[in-house]
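Tokens for chain A. Residues wanted.
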């Protein structure tokens, strides 16, 4: 960026001063947008897209500091220079401590003005250099989208990636939570370090604890050697806690402690080990509801959800359906070694109209089925309709799939132990009380499994 084309936004409720400053700056080759209030500055920000903002401190309506704060929220890298009358220098100094780039005391000479602007532009020039590395979009290349809502999420990702702020990703199953988590990691300074994902719902409590924080040899049955755990394995990278809403309460307490103290203590060890990881978590659940029901700790929730990103279901961004479908068709055709030219026009319509309860993952599966079974270079609507019926027809929700699994699993245990609850509980590594509760939930009566009773 050359200073010749640099854009300056001037904000002052004193029209004469505004005109004078404009002339000065234009004379120096800047392109100037002059507005008379903080409110006007904000409303013209997107159009003017200034490289530096100069604002009066005392104005009617929104004052210079309030304007600065709003600008910071929109673009933290935008330098702001404050104009101040003689009596308000302490305020101005205070302002620089709060992040304002600099201040000019009225009356000021033209040279001081230009020097300040020049300096500010160097800073925003650096910011633009940073923006240039922003132009490196490889961190998001796996995310295919043309949805403005998704773009807004990705813009937010770009901003939070540089910080260590904990991010919580909400979204229904298959909306791309894990993909987004990886993108955050790739956009962050931790990108060269490991990204470690763990599904907190799929692993029993004790195993999950050791998986996360490690264990020492012999600390429990089956702990045959020392194990570092994922927090240590991640080094200075990112730990992705998937399905955090399913983490058992006792482990939530331990996780909270780890996050507060930034150290882990492997099971069986008395020594705590420092860790420095970025946490991203994800859930398809409504955690606020879980908090109300006492199933999720509020304090942990606030730790994990410094920044929240909510992925919209695919049915709320239908413009993504054709681009995603085309993308999947291309990759899958390659994988299946088929020559496919694309979708028939009315085939795309079938895709765009469908409700996609399984979101992007379902779309992927549907395209995969169509590709696998296709015998022609163009995918027809009928092929997709069959694939969609297959997918959604057989697909139960995560909840009900888990429920069914639990019921079958418990029944199997009772069968093996001939209805002996103590034994069955031991096999499941649950205590008897807990085990009884599980049986009740599934209306399973152990006596039905006792020998001599016909099923
Ligand atoms: N915007 C996208 N562009 C390309 N592929 C995507 C996009 N969103 C999701 N996918 C693909 O869809 C599949 C599901 O995504 P992902 O596993 O990230 O979803 P999820 O929200 O974690 O799902 P679940 O809740 O079932 O674990 C993956 O194969 C992923 O690569
Ligand atoms: Mg996932």
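Reply:
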């Amino acid at each position: 960026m050359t200073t010749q084309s640099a854009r300056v936004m001037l904000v002052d409720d004193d029209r004469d001063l505004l005109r004078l400053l404009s002339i000065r700056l234009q004379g120096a080759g800047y392109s100037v947008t002059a507005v008379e209030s903080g409110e006007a500055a904000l409303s013209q920000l997107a159009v003017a897209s200034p490289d530096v903002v100069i604002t009066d401190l005392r104005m009617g309506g929104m004052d210079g500091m309030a304007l600065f704060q709003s600008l910071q929220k929109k673009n933290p890298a935008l330098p702001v220079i404050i104009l101040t009358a003689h009596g308000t220098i302490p305020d101005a100094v205070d302002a620089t401590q709060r992040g304002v780039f600099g201040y000019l005391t009225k009356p000021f000479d033209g040279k001081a003005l230009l020097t300040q602007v020049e300096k500010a532009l160097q800073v925003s020039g650096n910011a633009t250099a940073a923006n240039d590395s922003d132009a490196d979009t490889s961190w998001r290349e796996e995310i295919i989208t043309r949805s403005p809502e998704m773009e807004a999420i990705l813009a937010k990702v770009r901003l939070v990636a540089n910080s260590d702020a904990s991010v919580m990703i909400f979204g229904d199953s298959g909306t791309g939570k894990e993909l987004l988590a990886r993108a955050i990691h790739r956009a962050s300074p931790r990108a060269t370090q490991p990204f470690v994902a763990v599904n907190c719902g799929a692993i029993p409590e004790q195993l999950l604890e050791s998986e996360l924080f490690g264990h020492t040899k012999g600390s429990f049955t089956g702990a045959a050697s020392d194990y570092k755990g994922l927090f240590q394995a991640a080094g200075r990278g990112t730990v992705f806690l998937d399905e955090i809403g399913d983490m058992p309460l006792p482990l939530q307490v331990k996780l909270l402690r780890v996050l507060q103290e930034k150290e882990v203590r492997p099971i069986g060890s008395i020594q705590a080990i420092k860790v420095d990881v970025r946490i991203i978590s994800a859930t398809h659940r409504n955690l606020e509801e879980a908090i109300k029901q006492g199933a999720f700790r509020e304090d942990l929730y606030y730790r994990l959800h410094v920044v929240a990103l909510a992925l919209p279901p695919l049915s709320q961004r239908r413009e993504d359906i054709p681009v995603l479908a085309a993308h999947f068709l291309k990759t899958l055709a390659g994988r299946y070694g088929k020559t496919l030219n694309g979708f028939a026009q009315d085939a795309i319509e079938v895709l765009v109209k469908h409700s996609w309860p399984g979101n992007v993952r379902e779309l992927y599966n549907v395209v995969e089925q169509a590709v696998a079974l296709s015998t022609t270079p163009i995918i027809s609507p009928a092929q997709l309709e069959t694939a969609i019926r297959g997918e959604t027809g057989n697909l139960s929700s995560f909840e009900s799939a888990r429920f069914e699994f639990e019921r079958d699993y418990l029944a199997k245990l009772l069968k093996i132990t001939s209805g002996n609850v103590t034994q069955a509980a031991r096999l499941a590594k649950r205590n008897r009380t807990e085990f009884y509760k599980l049986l009740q939930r599934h209306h399973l009566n152990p006596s039905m499994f006792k020998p001599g009773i016909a099923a």
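The first helix runs from residue 15 to 27. Residues 126-134 have pLDDT under 50 and may be disordered.
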